[in-house]
Amino acid sequence: MDFIVQNWVLILIAVASGAMLLWPSVTSGGGANSLTPTQAVQLINREKAIVIDVCSPEEFAAGHVTNAKNVPIGELENRLTQVVKNKTLPVLMVCASGIRSKRAVAVAKKLGYEKAYSLAGGMGAWRAANLPVQKG
To answer: Cα dist. 36→20, 33, 48, 117 in Å?
Structure first.
C-alpha cells in the first residue's frame, strides 16, 4: 500500500498511457468498416468493389490504387451517387492515412451504401504492403 501512495503519479501515468493505447480499439479506430490492404484486395477481386479515393486531385495524381475514382471528401455527398450508381456493390474508400476515408464511409452509409469500407492506414498501408500504385 505504501508503494501506491508514494508512487501515485507513476501509476496515474501508466493507467493514462494504457487508456490511450486502447482508445482506438474502443472507438472506430479498427472497426468493422476498416479493411487491411490484403482484405481490400480480396474485396476488389472477389466482390468487384469500387475504389473511391477521397484525396485532393493533387494527392490522387501523386499515386492511387489502380482503377480508383477520385471524389474529394468535400464533394463526396454530392457526387457519390453519380460515380457509383449501384448501391449494392461494395465501396472501398481510400485516402492518404485512413482518417478521411473513415469519414467518407459515414457519408456513404448515410447515402445508402451499406457495404462501405475504409482502407485502414490509407495509401501509406497500401504502399507498405507493396501493392500496385497508379500515378497520374
So the answer is: 22, 10, 17, 10
